[in-house]
Structure of YjbQ family protein:
Amino acid sequence: MKWFQKTLRLPAVKRGFHLITDLLEAQLPELEEIEVGLAHIFIQHTSASLSINENADPTVRHDFEQHFNRMVPENAPYYRHTLEGPDDMPAHIKAALLGASVTVPITNGRLNVGTWQGIYLCEHRDHGGKRTIVITLQGK
């Protein structure tokens, strides 16, 4: 069994839901060495998250952003953690709801997501900056 672990720095993106599947595969030549296995992708931040969802229609990403902004509003009067700006506490809540990691099967050297699935970087801050992810590959 082979194990690989790599830390990647993702470019800064605007607030929203961004497909990163192709970017990940391009940065992981080690995938080609795995016939069958798993990729665990973990984001080292508390105000951004990862998710797997629709990869074809960009209106899905827009609708996700709109829904999460209504479900977890800025400037709620009960927030106490406010020193880092009005988008910070909502970003933490959104990240907790979506999660810090995804696990994807590897088949024949590729991430085995469904036809209409992609891996999202969910940026919940207005100016989150570059994000760091740790990817652990295992398989044979």
